[in-house]
Amino acid sequence: MAHIDYYFATLSPFAYLAGTRLEEVAARTGATITYKPLDIVALFGRTGGTPPKDRHPSRQAYRAQDLPRQARKLGMELTLKPAHWPTNPAPSSYAIIAAQKAGGGDLGALCHGILRACWAEEKDIAEDAVVRECLTAAGFDPSLVDSGLLVGAETYAANLEEAVERGVFGAPFYLVDSGESFWGQDKLDDLEAHLKGEL
Question: Staple 113 to which of 36, 128, 134, 169, CB 3.0 to 4.6 Å?
Fold first, then answer.
């Protein structure tokens, strides 16, 4: 059975646009997933990337065209300039890490719920109340917001170090135990083809 390490950021619009397609790919191929939220701005700094606000105007202009275009293609709502972006991604990331450890809910739904809260619902995912709502909706204990702080902080930092060591440089990023890597929500079809032995 194949395994996918999924590196992503709860502030990433491209992780949002992935929707629940990774989970659908895993269900069709029998693959398992480990969710590894990380600090994308720190990752950029370590791997030669540039935060969106610091990019050349032509890159910013292209991003402003491409994000809505991809959302339309996928039939997803998207606010190009969310009211609460950027915000502190740590609380939502810690909750995902704690939920993964605790089990009992739908982790894919939790991740997408948090991303949707930011990119389609104009909510601040740094607020505990918002994260609690997402935990509850995905079938997790909302008190994980509080109880998962320590392990969440430690794992969040470790995810960044691990990502740098393993050649991850953006989000969403999918690493398969075969050694193959796939960067971007637009590579999910390629990921599935690889898992099926077709690519």
Answer: 134
